[in-house]
Amino acid sequence: MMTDWRDRDIRLDVEMTDSSPASDPETWVDQHGDYLYRYALFRIRDPHLAEDLVQETLLAALEARNTFAGHSSERTWLVGILKHKIIDYLRQRHREPSFDTSDSADTSTEEFFTRMGMWKVKPDEWRFDPEAALNRKEFWDVFARCLSQLPARQADAFVLREIEGWDNKEISKVLNVSATNLWVMLHRARMRLRRCLEIHWFGGKTKEN
User: Fold this and answer.
1) In the CATH hierarchy, which top-level class contains the domain 14-93?
2) Range(s) for CATH 1.10.1740.10 in the chain?
3) pLDDT tens, 72-109?
4) Burial class of residue 90, CB neighbours in 10 A (0-12, 13-18, 19+)
């Protein structure tokens, strides 16, 4: 069965450890620190905040170390704690509800469509297998840069929907947006990401060997 790309969590260089009780906490930074940082950075897009969340995760894990029974890998356990930290942060960041369907006056879709809903410029044809690109670190570097260019709520909506696999109802609660507003955000996020990837990856600046 093929693994869905959302579940890979950019684990291109990661090997999960066997299920066992938690190791010496003094080794956690060396064993898992870089991976946890990349995981947080991809989702939060702020290096300093990603570092803080990883530190909070390791402290929480240290306090809960005796509860780790080894039913999953140590890294999976730590990632689970980090996910909760990230979601708590997103809830805090989006405490104020957003009623602006333009999402900070974003007019990005005007680049693609006329008022009649027709393409101004049709999307480029991708001339190689996108699935192969997902297995390349360079692709994820470009994707992360494209994601960081989106308005915060758009980027967070996309990450929760397409990376974490949440349903729209859950995302609306975390981001404090209406269902309609969320639909607009996701649509615009996908369009802008597609355009950015066409320019910086599929368009030829970074090419397949």
Assistant:
1) mainly alpha
2) 14-93
3) 889 999 999 999 999 999 999 998 766 554 444 454 55
4) buried
